Amino acid sequence: MLINSYIGGDKWKFSDKIYAKLTNKKVNSNYNPIISVFIKKLPGILPNKELFGFFWSTPTFKDTDSNYLLHTIDNEKIDYIVSTSSGNTVEGMARTIKNYNQEFNKNIIAILLVPELSAHKVSKSVIEDNPYVKYIVLKNSTLDSTRDLAKKLIKRLSNKYKVICAKADLKTAAYSQIGLVLNDNNLLNEDTCFVQTVSGGVGPAGLIESAYQLKTNHEILVIQPFNGKSAPIVDALNIHSKGGDPLSIFDDTDYVTSQIEPTLGSTKPYYAINKFTQWRENGGRIFPSVVSRDELARYKDKILNTLVEAGVYPTKKCGLKLFELEKSGFMAFTGAITSANRIESKNIVVNFTGRYPDHLSTVPIQASPHILFDPSEELKRLLSLLDLK
């Protein structure tokens, strides 16, 4: 079973309604990019369950919120976009801003900030020969400290320029598109469980907002890596299920970026915790699980073979290299396997958030930064290195 679909285009109107609900901002746009997606039934992995993969046509699924950001600001005069991530969002922003500027003859510059720990995820193909980006790698940084620096940079630049970034509500509205596609194909219902790894959690948050809009009540399984203190969303939901305050987990625990997968690096996901606990308190079903390094290794080949058979990867060799680049999608499938006996629903849909082959470079080559910066230095030094006009 194969379902071909898309997000965006005329469907952005659905996200626009949710964005207006969350922010009281109306969107008026002439930019309506389309991203192809496909849903494929994957037999042989889970007995007694119908397992589906939700797959993307772009090298990273994070192209979605980058495209939606550009959709929302299409009729505004913007000078700079500041984009931070552990790699995937920055990768998507670099690609989408180039396409947008060339199509509309604009010159919006994206300032891209990535911690050195995960800079290997940013491809040379999206940075090289791209005059619309300034790519900065931060030494001795985490995803959270990178975001903190971005806030300071935006505040300083806003004194002179029109500067924007993609906030959590905007990303949530963007990923509500997943729910719309699932609903159109009868996979957003009480007998379906949606599975995704989470860091900031805006993917499942978007699915929750689409469910509110469409009046559905599906099941959600969120996955984080089992690696020391790297699963704050899991801990918060577990505390909440026992009647406790989910935010109390931060009182005596300092969370750290996962060593298994640094993409899952948000250690203060307050937004997601609030969204998920509200969903549960409103009668929604959501539960967490963790995946260990050993579990990931145990199921890797099985998942990899399935992805090659499904046409996601052209060869096992290619898939293995992309697994090394981004493990989050494999972790989602692993979590679905290890938590299958806890899932009530017959249908399980896994959002594969791993990396996909790029037509420019099947296995990406790491990009060299324009600026390598130590955040312990003064912000004015970074501004001088940026050399903004």
Features:
2 domains; Rossmann fold; alpha/beta; globular; Tryptophan synthase beta chain-like PALP domain-containing protein; 7-stranded mixed sheet; 5-stranded parallel sheet; 389 residues
Give the overall pLDDT as a whole number: 95
The CATH topology of the largest domain comes to Rossmann fold
Structural class: alpha/beta
Instruction: Provide the helix percentage.
Output: 40-55%
Low-confidence spans: pLDDT under 50, at least 5 residues? Answer: none
Give the tally of β-strands: 12
- Alpha carbon gap, first and last residue: 53 Å
Radius of gyration: 20 Å
As laid out across the biggest beta sheet, the strand order is 1-2-3-11-8-9-10
Number of helices: 13
Strand content: 15-25%
Q: Report the order of strands and helices.
A: EHEEHEHEHEHEHEHEHHEHHHEEH
Report on the biggest sheet: 7 strands, mixed
Number of domains: 2
Protein name: Tryptophan synthase beta chain-like PALP domain-containing protein
